[in-house]
Design a protein that fits this description.
The chain has about 550 residues and is an alpha+beta fold. The chain is about 40% helix and about 20% strand. It has helices at about 5-20, 135, 150-160, 165-170, 190-200, 205-220, 255-295, 295-315, 350-395, 400-410, 410-415, 425-430, 450-460, 485-500, and strands spanning about 25-30, 35-40, 45-50, 60-65, 75, 85-90, 95-100, 105-110, 115-120, 125-130, 225-230, 235-240, 250, 325-330, 340-345, 430-435, 440-445, 465-470, 475-480, 510-515, 520, 530, 535-540. Helix 3 (about 150-160) packs across helix 6 (about 205-220), helix 7 (about 255-295) packs antiparallel against helix 9 (about 350-395) and helix 8 (about 295-315) packs antiparallel against helix 9. This is NFACT RNA-binding domain-containing protein.
Length: about 550
């Protein structure tokens, strides 16, 4: 529901409250399919709006603080930097957020999944764009959808107030699963249509559908942003009042989208880690199954018996005159009355030597059969282990669980002949790690000695160091963030509070500072430090590390 029209509608209203009177700081792209728009609010705070394209699971979220673009990034729409934001509004006709700028120009944030883009409109003409510049510049910008007589909310409001009009529009529904009959509802994507059908009890009766539609429509006007998780651990987001599994209510749309997006980044990171491992497991299983199909013990036993029989027949036919160097016809001594048998010979060997050759081949075939039987047993054992690992892998739902799974099963992986399983190397194997975003990682000490290594051997002077104030706990180091990354610092502080003796408290003070202001003393025990300068933030301990 993160891309739904109503989610973006309320997001635009909250952005208007934050950004109106502020100005555009910079616009850049640091990650593939990701656009970061940095603003300074009227209150002087830094706020980043991040757009994500080509990932249906993500759309738009915000980050507090300033994250300056790095060297390998694209500086975009630089002509509007330092322009004042006059207001933020939602397009009445489609999933586009309109950012009004001083001078009368409009920055359009088009939030379609496959073709998300940001472009500048001046007097109805597109003058610049982040992507597809050559195709868009100079073309007119048509905001209104020619298929809509009214804007989306007005159209839905008319339907919610007129049962007869709703019934006329709905046509003849084919059944409770036929959502096509409801496609006349603007702004309702497939997720919303499924929710509508479920609210109607799976009944295609127009009265039931109308009542369910009214109920959902008024919930959309007064949303309840919440995050949740599926039983498999996949993050969920909704603005309807029906509770999600493991629901957590958010105070605002911006908070809900930020929490959901952070959790979804972790989920996608897990899926990426799982994908490579699952592919390797499948390839290894296919290889074993192919080898097992080739093994045929019955054929090998039959061949060994035939070789031995031919050897005996040749020994019983030494008295016969050899008329051909390549073969000889002998009577079937083991089955009298049956036709004679033609046996292939090696021309340069005598009959007795040919018989010995057949006995040798019989012995070799039986030995091969025995070795293959042992090989088959080993393959079946490896297959059972791989199938067990594959089943266990399917239940993992977090990057932490994937790493623990790999570390716990390295011996099994080696025993099945799989190539070495790669995990994040270096510090992540020594410290607990939590990926807060694609570029920001939190490292957590495991014990006093490990805390010492994390702080004084691994952390760099400008890394952010965190610790629960006044409580025993883990040292935490935040890499890839600056002091302006307020959202990441708060999340890291919540996790630091969780890894402290105060983890069961309602609120925990967590201090954070640059690592260069943390030092140790010979008089202090291992793991204890002196902090020369600090800031303190009050947080609720995180429920988990995700």
């Amino acid at each position: 529901m993160q891309r739904n029209y109503f989610t973006l509608y309320h997001t635009a209203m909250e952005l208007h409250e934050r950004l109106a009177g502020g100005f555009v700081f910079e616009i850049h792209s640091q990650q593939k399919n990701e656009l970061t728009l940095s603003f300074v609010t009227a209150a002087g705070d830094h706020l980043q709006v991040v757009m994500v394209s080509r990932k249906p699971e993500l759309c738009l979220f915000t980050r507090e603080g300033m994250n300056r673009r790095k060297r390998q990034s694209a500086n975009l729409l630089h002509t509007i930097c330092e322009r004042e934001v006059t207001g933020v509004a939602m397009s009445p006709y489609d999933r586009e957020i309109l950012v009004g700028l001083s001078g009368g120009d409009t920055l359009v944030l088009r939030l379609f999944s496959a073709s998300a883009n940001a472009f500048l409109v001046s007097e109805g003409i597109i003058t610049d764009a982040c992507t597809s510049r050559n195709d868009l510049i100079g073309k007119p910008y048509r905001e209104k959808d020619i298929h809509l007589a009214q804007d989306i909310i007005r159209e839905l409001e008319l339907l919610a107030q007129d049962k007869q009009l709703f019934s006329l529009r709905i046509g003849h529904a084919a059944g409770p699963d036929n959502q096509d009959s409801l496609n006349f509802l603007p702004g309702f994507d497939r997720t919303m249509l499924r929710a509508l059908v479920e609210r109607a009890g799976g009944n295609d009766d127009p009265d039931n559908l109308f009542n369910a539609f009214r109920e959902i429509f008024y919930e959309l006007l007064d949303p309840l942003p919440q995050t949740g998780k599926t039983p498999e651990g996949k993050p969920l987001f909704s603005i309807l009042h029906s509770p999600l599994p493991e629901s957590e209510i958010c105070s605002s749309m911006l908070e809900g989208l930020s929490r959901y997006s952070s959790a979804m980044w972790g989920w996608l990171h897990t899926a990426e880690a799982l994908g490579g491992l699952e592919t390797t497991l499948r390839q290894q299983l296919r290889k074993i199954e192919k080898e097992l199909l080739v093994y045929d013990p019955e054929t090998l036993a039959k061949n060994a018996s035939e070789y031995e029989t031919r050897g005996h027949l040749l020994m019983g036919a030494l008295y016969l005159e050899r008329t051909s160097p390549d073969s000889i016809i002998v009577p079937d001594l083991f089955n009298p009355g049956r036709p004679d048998i033609t046996i292939t010979l090696k021309p340069n060997l005598s009959l007795s030597d040919n018989a010995s050759e057949y006995f040798r081949k019989a012995s070799k075939t039986r030995g091969k059969s025995s070795a293959l039987a042992q090989r088959r047993t080993g393959l079946e054992q490896r297959k059972a282990i791989l199938e067990s690992l594959s089943a266990e892998l399917a239940s993992l739902v977090s990057p932490k669980a994937v790493k623990q799974f790999i570390d716990a099963n390295r011996t099994k992986f080696r025993g099945t002949g799989m190539p070495a399983v790669k995990t994040a190397s270096g510090p992540s194997s020594r410290f607990r790690t939590v990926k807060l975003s694609p570029s920001v990682t939190l490292y957590i000490g495991k014990n006093a000695k490990n805390n010492e290594q994390l702080t004084f051997a691994f952390a760099k002077p400008d890394d952010i160091w965190l610790h629960a104030r006044g409580s025993a706990g883990s040292h935490c180091v935040l890499k890839g963030a600056t002091m302006q990354h307020k959202e990441e610092i708060r999340k890291a502080a919540e996790i630091a509070a969780r890894h402290s003796a105060a983890q069961h408290s309602e609120l925990v003070p967590v201090m954070y500072t640059f690592k260069k202001y943390v030092r140790h003393s010979k008089k202090l025990p291992v793991g204890q430090v002196i902090v020369e300068r600090e800031e303190v933030i009050m947080v609720r301990p995180a429920k988990n590390d995700e």
